[in-house]
Design brief:
The complex is a heterodimer. By secondary structure, chain A is an alpha/beta fold. Chain A has helices at residues 10-30, 81-94, 108-118, 135-140, 148-152, 171-174, 199-205, 213-225, 239-254, 257-263, 273-286, 298-306, 319-322, 369-379, 382-392, 409-421, 431-434, 436-450, 456-472; strands at 69-74, 100-105, 124-127, 176-177, 182-183, 186-198, 229-231, 310-316, 333-336, 352-361, 395-396, 425-426. In chain A, strand 1, helix 2 and strand 2 (100-105) form a beta-alpha-beta unit. Helix content of chain B is 68%, strand content 1%. Chain B has helices at 8-42, 60-66, 69-101, 117-129, 132-142, 150-157, 172-197, 201-209, 214-225, 227-241, 245-251, 265-274, 279-303; strands at residues 106-107, 110-111. Chain B is flat and about 75 Å long. Classes of the chains: A alpha/beta, B mainly alpha.
């Protein structure tokens, strides 16, 4: 007997209709302008329903034990071994039935943007690197999960303590976004920023790091006499290393309020005298640079420092690990705070810019969002943090995770600077992530300032123009911060 | 065959044609026509590219474009590249291909290229074999601003101070144009050589017998006879002048710098898309770029139209 349409049962029909829907789905979502059909309710990790298991201290997010987990890690200075060899195994130990799909890439933005547009997103993303995803835009599009449940959950090592109590204060605040502000990003790495130098070279030459810009200039002359460039950065792709220094100096002169005003696009924030003084002070040091540095990339300049051609290099605490392979025998990295600009600076010389960095996000439309949160909780365990520090030579935001670890010379100096700074911490700058247009302009103007094409006055004027333009642009969603 | 009736022969004929055309046409429509139409549609929206929600904003993106100084900087740069790059490339390529094919004087009673011309032909073609990004990386080393840069160390032998090829805002774009010419010349040498090989040798011999020197031979005989090929080359190069993305991305300071001195439209489109997430605005730039290229192609075809010489 041949099958005619009449023989198809209701069940078969439903199955076929379902199948068609499945086939049509990806096609539609693959099309950039394919209607607004993919706005399904996001699976909420705070109130999971499908898992079945009830929440417990070991599984506070009700993760389904056999649900697959997809992790995307930025494979940059930290590589991705810490994920494949520590964090993912930790997750697997907790949920042996789960399969983990791992991807270590550099172009986070280009690779994941189409997936966000199509609704097929990974469960955890390490959103970092120069081509990262625009966090602000994702938050506004409702694409990120609020991480509050993570910070309120019991910690892995001591269920009587919440996750928020085992991490460095300020970590949660550094990941706030949106309006009203919620923590959407877990910044995992404790990063300190300052001037890096070779302690052995300074010992040999009898130099001490300058504590004021006057001393810095005297030092610059002395270094120049020895044919060593006193300060250098790479203009081709890392001008932001230099603008960090300018912003730090501005905050030291006028307090963190200067940086908050810049983030909040306050009127004339860039025209503040503190910004102008900081820009002028750094431009003076810029005069000692080799003009060729504007055409070099960061690794080239860093290698020159390793070769003893550059005294000070502006960077963060990842530098020592990043250069580990190229650092010659007898080169010993150390970090000091930026010199004071005026005698009336609001913050002491010891103040450093320190921030939780290296963001991790959980997409709200992730298939296993609860698993994503659990992965982050495992990362914040002492084991996860210690493994990370061992593999990357970088500190995490987890308190006391380095107990029993021998730190490298560079990290030891970072820890010392952290202790000396105490509460004198220069805040991070949120506009770097919030307003990319403004950030791009700052990179451009920083090169122009440091390589002598514009004055500090013009620098402030041009940045103020760019900030005013951002403020006036209604298509850019504004954000504010108070801390 | 009567009109209005499908004979088996016609079915076979048209069926054959349609079945062969269907696949390429489908691919063309899906992967070329539809993305272009979508870009046009996106250009009228405020899409950020990461969410399916967006509003139609009419021509707002285009009005914004007219006030965008970076956009105009990019357009000016395309204008300069368009004026300089095709002309220089074609002149050098014509000169080389003339030398390679006819410039060597008479040999065995026939006009031939300079000594070793078959070797040079291969060498000239090398840059064309390399991917643009590889060319960019190569020239990073060549144009390195330090004393140790390849070009600068050569200049150093003559006591010239290191030149910041890509650092000086006045020089950077010219340097990029130079790299584009270096990369393009080889292909056009081969293209023009093929054009010259297509011209019957008797014409050149007759001219040479009449006492034409190499100068006359080139301007009065060769150039008019390969004019069609030159015209094709001009259109290709003109379209290439609206690209330059990879070279600028790899070579320039801070992607399009210093101070916007080297930026080009494809780079700005990339930045608007992947850095600022303004898919709508980036699409508007893309539409503007398409119109610039089409206008150029149409103008060139119109201006360079010339009587074809039959031989």
């Amino acid at each position: 007997m041949t099958i005619t349409p009449r023989d198809i049962t209701r069940r078969q029909l439903l199955a076929r209709v379902g199948l068609t829907a499945l086939v049509a789905g990806p096609f539609l979502s693959a099309c950039a302008t394919g209607g607004g059909g993919s706005q399904e309710a996001a699976p909420s990790a705070a109130a999971p329903s499908a898992g079945g298991a009830s929440a417990s201290a070991n599984n506070p997010f009700n993760v389904k034990a056999d649900a697959p987990l997809e992790v995307v890690i930025f494979k940059g200075g930290y590589s991705d071994e810490y994920a494949t060899q520590s964090h993912e195994p930790l997750y697997k130990k907790a949920f042996p039935g789960a399969t983990i799909k791992h991807q270590g890439i550099q172009t986070i933005g280009q690779t994941l943007t189409p997936r966000f547009a199509g609704g097929d997103v990974p469960d955890v993303v390490n959103n970092s690197g120069t081509d990262n995803l625009d966090g602000g835009a994702l938050i506004n599009a409702g694409q990120l999960l609020d991480l509050t449940p993570l910070f309120e959950a019991p910690s892995v090592d001591d269920p009587s303590k919440k996750v928020k109590d085992v991490i460095v204060p300020g970590t949660i605040e550094s990941g706030l976004g949106g309006d009203p502000a919620k923590p959407y990003t877990l910044n995992y790495v404790y990063t300190a920023y300052g001037l890096w130098y070779d302690a052995k070279l300074f010992e040999k030459e009898g130099w001490t790091p300058p504590k004021t810009f006057d001393e810095f200039k005297t030092f610059a002359e002395a270094a120049k006499a020895k044919n060593i460039v006193p300060f250098g950065y790479a203009g081709k792709n890392a001008s932001y290393y230099a603008y960090w220094m300018i912003l730090i100096s501005a905050a030291k002169i006028g307090g963190n309020k200067i940086l908050l005003d810049i983030d909040n696009l306050a009127d004339n924030a860039w025209n503040n005298d503190a910004v102008k003084q900081a820009a002028a002070a750094w431009a003076e040091i810029g005069k000692f640079m080799d003009p060729a540095y504007e055409g070099l990339i960061h690794t080239e300049v860093q290698t020159q420092q390793n070769q003893g051609k550059i005294a000070f290099y502006p960077s963060g605490s990842w530098l020592e690990a990043e250069q580990a392979k190229d650092t010659p025998e007898g080169f010993e990295y150390a970090m000091v705070p930026t010199p004071s600009v005026t005698a009336a600076d609001q913050m002491p010389y010891e103040a450093i810019r320190a921030a939780a960095a290296e963001g991790f996000i959980v997409p709200s439309k992730a298939k296993n969002a609860a698993g994503g949160l659990e992965y982050l909780r495992q990362m914040l365990s002492k084991q996860g943090a210690r493994d990370f520090t061992e593999k990357t030579k970088s500190l995490t935001v987890v308190i006391g995770a380095t107990e029993g670890l021998t730190l490298s010379p560079g990290l030891t100096s970072v820890a010392a600077a952290q202790t000396a700074a105490g509460t004198n911490v220069v805040t991070f700058s949120s506009f770097e992530g919030w307003y990319k247009e403004l950030e791009t302009e700052l990179r451009k103007q920083t090169n122009a300032l440091m390589f002598g094409r514009i004055s500090a006055e013009e620098f402030a004027t041009k940045m103020q123009e760019a900030a005013d333009k951002t403020k006036a642009d209604s298509s850019i969603v504004k954000q504010t911060r108070n801390v | 065959m009567r009109r209005g009736r499908l004979t088996p022969g016609a079915v076979r004929k048209w069926g054959f044609i349609v079945s062969f055309l269907a696949a390429p046409l489908a691919i063309y429509i899906v992967f070329f026509v539809s993305p272009n139409l979508q870009a046009l549609q996106l250009a009228l929206t405020n899409s950020r590219g990461i969410s399916p929600d967006f509003q139609y904003v009419g021509f707002e993106n285009f009005t914004r474009l007219f006030g965008d100084e970076v956009f105009w900087a990019a357009v000016r740069h395309h204008g300069l590249i368009l004026l300089v790059m095709p002309l220089v490339t074609i002149v050098i390529a014509l000169f080389f291909s003339f030398l390679l094919n006819l410039g060597g004087g008479q040999r065995n009673g026939q006009l031939a290229g300079v000594w070793g011309s078959s070797f040079y032909k291969v060498v000239f073609f090398f840059p064309q074999v390399l991917a643009v990004v590889i060319v960019g990386v190569l020239f990073q080393a060549v144009l390195n601003p330090q004393k140790s840069g390849i070009l600068n160390s050569v200049l150093g032998w003559f006591g010239v101070d290191p030149v910041g090829w890509l650092i000086k805002p006045d020089l950077a774009l010219w340097t990029i144009i130079g790299v584009m010419v270096w990369q393009g010349v080889g292909f056009y040498v081969v293209l023009f050589s093929a054009g010259m090989a297509g011209v019957p040798k008797e014409i050149f011999e007759a001219a040479a017998l009449d006492g034409a020197n190499r100068f006359t031979l080139f301007f009065k005989i060769t150039l008019p006879l390969v004019w069609n090929t030159v015209q094709v080359g001009w259109v290709y190069l003109g379209i290439a002048a609206f690209d330059a993305f990879a070279l600028v991305q790899v070579l320039s300071i801070d992607r399009g710098g210093p101070d916007n001195a080297t930026t080009v439209l494809p780079l700005e489109i990339f930045r608007q898309t992947f850095t600022y997430y303004r898919f709508g605005y980036a699409s508007a730039m893309g539409v503007a770029l398409v119109f610039l290229v089409l206008t150029f192609a149409a103008l060139t075809m119109r201006v360079t139209r010339r009587e074809r010489i039959e031989y």
